[in-house]
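Narrative progress, year one. The postdoctoral researcher (J.K.) led the effort to move from monomer predictions toward full complexes, under supervision of the PI. The following entry was the first complex the group processed end to end, covering 404 residues in total.
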Amino acid sequence: MVETSRAPRRDSYTVDTLLAVTVRVFNERGYDGTSMEDLSRAAGISKSSIYHHVKGKEELLRLAVGRALDGLFGTLEEPAATTGTALARLQHVVHRTTEVLLAELPYVTLLLRVRGNTATEQWALQRRREFDHRVAELLAEAVAEGSLRADVEPRLATRLLFGMINSLVEWYRPDGPDGARTAARVADAVSELAFHGLRASD
Amino acid sequence: MVETSRAPRRDSYTVDTLLAVTVRVFNERGYDGTSMEDLSRAAGISKSSIYHHVKGKEELLRLAVGRALDGLFGTLEEPAATTGTALARLQHVVHRTTEVLLAELPYVTLLLRVRGNTATEQWALQRRREFDHRVAELLAEAVAEGSLRADVEPRLATRLLFGMINSLVEWYRPDGPDGARTAARVADAVSELAFHGLRASD
């Protein structure tokens, strides 16, 4: 009798690699539609091995959306987001937000799909609103300094701006042969269209 | 015995009013997650009464997304979309597309959420791609005439443009005391931001 053949498959996961599997399953099946059984099957390890890393499904959600939120809020603390004109700070935040979204695509996708009623989902929605609010304030500041048009109210402008940026999760796929350059090109395009629009400059 | 007390509840629906109930349920529960039983309960009429109007769930979907598609494609046939510079035609289509989205909000919401594998869903996805393609062509024409910037490729610009417009289904609610004026203000804001961006003109 070969004892090792009965041993459970070795759990070589870290929280980070387990999270990568989890976020893929959450995005495919929805958070509500995903059971610990589904996660166990997708990861190829037992449920008890998953419980060795985290308390359960809700902690995995918190870690996954936390990663997206840390990336987004991090952009607000970067030097270029904290010094200079409001316009320059906003331009930096818009460009970096797009870069974070593309770099952390599955995590931001999950964040943007959060809808539910658990404490973690409510927390994620609240943090997302806080981020939008911080950007809306920056936008209002840039209007006040005269750099941005005053005829579109900042809250509406912020919503349309994030509408454009967040729509990337619907179609952008980083798999191409030239992912990093494509991401840079997309982030540049978002910045250009956001601040200058489609019209050719005269 | 009062015979009328046993009569089925009178079906005062037309296809249009039945569709209004249906599209609300589809948007709440998802097309796949909606049964004829759910529709019967929401409409307060029997399933056989619904079958009196339509063949079934898939026909209701076809009629609902058809209404959204008719509205969107209709904008391409309007005089201002067929004569004049490519820029003027594109500006008209962007403004009218936004107006149609806001006026037919539940129907366009349903169209934008179509994902599945039934023939009707495939047809809806195909028609939606056709519409995007028509707008992308118009945008390319406006680039070629020198009215629009050439440094963002038309396909990417179209995606970001529709990202901004389509995001309205996520938050716009027409219930306010001043719905029509709000819709006009939003459509103007979309046009301004799309063509001129956030920057104040010098």
